[in-house]
Write a structure and sequence with these properties.
Strand order of the largest sheet: 1-2-10-7-12-5
Radius of gyration: 16 Å
Strand content: 35-45%
Helix content: under 10%
CATH superfamily: Jelly Rolls
CATH class: Mainly Beta
Number of domains: 1
């Protein structure tokens, strides 16, 4: 497994070891001891699985406030997505900046999204399935979001008219969002 830091401190880009032969492939999608050796010590408590039936479905930008803030480990098992993270940590040198990653069934890569980041993705193919682990259970009262098309963020999404949920259509801009995250120097 290769773990590389992303441009935004705390975000990690993970490439699992894949064993392929004429039958197909085998890989460990998660091994707590191996992840801990690579600086990922989250204790995951819930797995989430989404299916998007068409390309252009955009989910996000989501996060949960403390004490229910979540670290996420995201991967795609069918299709592909453009996965986006936005730094929400007060005092961070990259506050309000975003970074994107292509995750797909073909590349088998994973993305670690730490507490303090909004997360969202846009499907690049029909019938895309996304699996992600979280280290805190979902809490509707702590759930928040940021408008996917906030002009201050200027995220380069692959669509201009995505398919959105009702709640994703009404999230506020970053400047109006409720945040409670603070940057720590040692988050790299």
């Amino acid at each position: 497994m290769k773990v590389q830091p992303a441009r935004l401190a705390g975000v990690k880009w993970i490439e699992p070891t894949v064993f392929e032969d004429h039958r197909g492939f085998f890989m460990e999608s998660y091994n707590a001891a191996e992840y801990a050796r690579n600086g990922i010590a989250a204790t995951f408590v819930q797995d989430n699985h989404s299916l998007s039936a068409e390309a252009g479905v955009l989910r996000g930008l989501h996060y949960q406030l403390h004490p229910k803030a979540q670290t996420k480990l995201v991967r795609v098992v069918a299709g592909s997505i453009l996965d986006v993270v936005v730094d929400l940590r007060s005092g961070s040198p990259t506050f309000g900046q975003w970074e994107s990653f292509v995750l797909s069934a073909a590349n088998k890569r994973q993305l670690l999204v730490p507490v303090g980041f909004a997360h969202g993705f846009c499907t690049l193919e029909a019938n895309t399935e996304v699996l992600y682990k979280v280290d805190e259970v979902y809490s509707p009262t702590h759930e928040r979001g940021i408008a996917w098309n906030d002009p201050a963020l200027s995220i380069d999404w692959p669509v201009t008219n995505p398919t959105l949920s009702a709640k994703d259509q009404i999230y506020p801009s970053l400047s109006d969002a409720e945040l409670d995250f603070v940057y720590q120097e040692d988050e790299r």
